[in-house]
C-alpha cells in the first residue's frame, strides 16, 4: 500500500512539473552553400593488358610494358608517393567454341599528377610505353578540405538569413542556434575522360593539342538549423 501511494505521489509530481515546462519558441530552416573551384591536380588510373596462349610469356610481356611505364613516370619527376600499382592479375580464359585456352594479364597503376601542364605529355607517354587502357581520369583539388569548410560556412549564413527573413514580419529576433544537422553528402570527385588519349595516323604531331577540359569542381554543403526566437 505504501508503495502504491509513493508511486502516485511521484506520478503527480512529474505531471505537475511537465505542465510547467513551456515550449521554446524556435524556427527550423535549411541552408545550402556552394563553392566552385578550378582543379589543380588529376588522378589517372591506367592499365597494361596483355593476352596470349602461354601464361609465362603473357606475364613477362606485361611486366616489361609496366616497367617501361614506371620508368616514364619516374622521369617526369613525380614523387614516389604520387604513383602506385593498384591491381595485378593473371587469369586463364577458355574459348568453348575453339576449345582453346588463353591467358589475360593486367596491371593497373594509379598516378596523381600535380602539374596539369604535363597532362598531355604524360598521357601520350603512357600509351607509347604500353598502356592500352585508360580506366578513368579524375580532376581534383589539393585544397578540398579548405573549400569544404567555406561551403559549410556559406550554408550556415544562408540558414540564418532565411530565419531572419521569416521572423522579420513577426517583430521577433533570431537567437542562438538550438540544433544543427549536417545534411551534406560525401564529396566524390567525378571522373572526366580525356577527349583524346591515343595517337592516330592523321594527327599532326607538330600541331599544338589540347586533350582535356578540366572544367570546375562544385562543392556543396547542406545544413538544417533550429534557432531560438527572442
From TrEMBL:
It comes from the Bacteria. Keywords: Signal. The keyword Glycoprotein does not apply. One of its GO terms (biological process) is DNA damage response. Residues 1-18 form the signal peptide. InterPro entries: 26kDa_periplasmic_antigen (IPR052022), SIMPL/DUF541 (IPR007497). Pfam families: SIMPL (PF04402). PANTHER family: PERIPLASMIC IMMUNOGENIC PROTEIN, SLR1258 PROTEIN. This is Outer membrane protein. It comes from Flavobacterium gilvum.
